[in-house]
Amino acid sequence: MTMQIIRDLSKATFGGCVATIGNFDGVHLGHQAMLRHLSMLAQAKKLPLVVVTFEPLPQEFFAGDQNTLLRLTRLSEKLMLLQAAKVDAVVCLRFNQTVANWQAETFIEQLLIEQLQVKYLLVGRDFRFGHQRGGDVNLLSQYQDAFALEVFSAVDYQQQRISSTLIRLALAQGNLAFSNALLGHRYFIRGRVIYGDQRGRTMGFPTANIALRQWKCPLRGVFVVQVQGLAKQPLPGVANVGVRPTVDGRQQLLEVHLLDFQQSIYGKRLRVEFLTQLRDEQRFTSVAALRQQIQHDVEQAKQWWADYATIELD
Questions:
Q1: Residue 23's CB: how many other CB atoms inside 10 A?
Q2: 61: closest CA among 26, 31, 20, 93?
Q3: Fewer CB near the last or first residue (10 Å), C or N of the chain?
Q4: Backbone φ, ψ for residue 164 (5° rounding)
Q5: E strands of 11-48, at which residues?
Q6: Residues 142 and 277 occupy one common structural domain
Q7: Strand, coil or helix: what is 16?
Q8: Is residue 182 part of a domain?
């Protein structure tokens, strides 16, 4: 069944639902555990499972032009992961000043009770909502004549609480093994291949370029990747995520060089999965030095695939 995506609250009519609320950045193992629990409950009660989330994230809205949040997923990627978790509907609220000004009681009474008709609500212990984060689980518990409330315990991995913040830190450090373990899947970026400046092609290493626009990705550097969306099986590649300092780049860009692949793929939508980091992004003294390093990166990536691919990959 196709997941319903609702941006207009007037269309959020369920006649009762089980629900949870949050940013769900990355839809990591902790989120997945919550959603599995809710999915079983929704099936038992014959009610839809609804996730309420926000775009932009509240932290991004309040930061404005000074935003530095390194998001794990853009909205399209988050929605794809929520659908895979068998969510029936996502209510995606545009977070603006009006929403920011909602009193916590308004959030509960008008959104949860009147509009969504929530019958069962699951939130984390640290959940805060409403104007100046004035609402919490203690306030929600006062409305249990309207809906049942359950507070979900955090999920731990190696004695650490799984959180989007912890995963962002691991990715920023290039620790893909740890971040992927917390996510429950390989970290990936999806996007459409755009026309670039052809620098890679002129150096003998054509790249598929995916613009990240205003999204601030936590990854930076050169990685061994596999790419889905072009063939039945994932294709091997090497990718750079960064601003390309050697050629005075400014905007963050994902550049993927597919190994031993020559087809034109402009306009194709790819899913790039990150497997291991080769090096950090760096500035080179010349384009010739950059080309020499790219050649070395490609050779390293090919060697990784020869040594580890059959062991590491599903």
A1: 19
A2: 93
A3: C
A4: -60, -35
A5: 17-21
A6: no
A7: coil
A8: no
Please give the C-alpha separations between residue 299 and each of 102, 169, 233, 237, 278, in angstroms, as whole numbers.
Answer: 55, 28, 22, 11, 11
Q: Is the peptide bond before 48 cis (omega within 30 degrees of 0)?
A: no
Query: In this structure, what DSSP letter does residue 277 have?
Result: E
Last residue of a domain, one of 121, 143, 161: 161
Conformation bin of residue 217: beta by default, left when phi > 0, alpha when psi is -120 to 50: beta
Six-digit token string for 135? 């609402």
In a domain? residue 167: no
Torsion-angle region of residue 166: left (phi > 0), alpha (psi -120 to 50) or beta? alpha
pLDDT tens-place string over residues 230-281: 999 999 999 999 876 555 556 788 999 999 898 889 999 999 999 999 999 8
On whether both 39 and 129 belong to a single domain, the answer is yes
Specify whether 191 is located in the same domain as 79.
no
The first and second tokens of residue 113, run together, are: 């009770």
Same domain, 53 and 128: yes
Q: Looking up tokens 């909502």, which residue turns up?
A: 129
The letter for the amino acid at 156 is D
Question: Angle, to 10 degrees, between the axis of helix 176-183 and the axis of helix 164-172?
Answer: 160
Q: Which pLDDT belongs to residue 177?
A: 93
DSSP labels, 147-203: SEEEEEPPPEETTEE--HHHHHHHHHTT-HHHHHHHHTS--EEEEE-B---SHHHHT
User: Rounded to whole angstroms, how far apart are CA atoms 32 and 94?
Assistant: 23
The conformation of residue 234, written as its DSSP 8-state character, comes to P
Residue 72 or residue 68, greater confidence: 72
Q: Which domain holds residue 230?
A: 187-312
pLDDT of 75-121, one tens digit each? Answer: 999 999 999 999 999 999 999 999 999 999 999 999 999 999 999 99
Question: What pTM value is reported for the model?
Answer: 0.89
Q: What is the DSSP letter of 107?
A: I
Residue 116 contacts residue 15 (beta carbons within 8 Å): no
